[in-house]
Amino acid sequence: MEFLASLYVEAAFISGIGLTLEAGLTSQRRATSDVLKEVVARSPRTYMLVDHSKFGRTRLLHIAWSWHAAGVIVDSGAGTGANGGLCRTQGLDLGRGAGAVRA
């Protein structure tokens, strides 16, 4: 992780295995979780890349809270029901595909 200490990260684009209001973005791999936490800490803006199958799933290791994200980039299967509700209740921009997130 030492190499991350010397980096300036203008924007972080991160993903995980699950995203819920209660647990945030989560992973099941310690190395991945640790690196992504450090990247988020060094970035003024974080965007979460989450396909619709990851909404409502929780894994063991926390990466970041959804309300800390500048936006969530999703696939076309997201945006309805609980998926879209999770983002809207946190005031997150729910973008679809490349270039869809409005910062």
Protein model, in words:
This protein has helices at residues 2-5, 30-42, 81-89, and strands at residues 12-14, 18-20, 24-27, 46-50, 61-64, 71-74, 93-96. It has one domain. It has 103 residues and is of the alpha/beta class. It has three helices and seven strands, in the order αβββαβββαβ.
Write down how many β-strands occur, each being a DSSP E stretch of 2 or more residues: 7
* Helix-residue proportion: 25-40%
Described by its quaternary structure, the protein is single chain
Shape annotation: globular
N- and C-termini, Cα separation? 28 Å
The number of distinct helices, counting runs of at least 4 residues, comes to 3
Low-confidence stretches: 98-103
Count of spatially separate domains: 1
Beta-strand portion reads 25-35%
What structural class is derived from the secondary structure elements?
A: alpha/beta
**Please, what is the average pLDDT?**
81
Instruction: Please summarize the sheet with the most strands.
Output: 4 strands, parallel
Order of helices and strands: HEEEHEEEHE
Strands side by side in the biggest sheet: 1-4-6-7
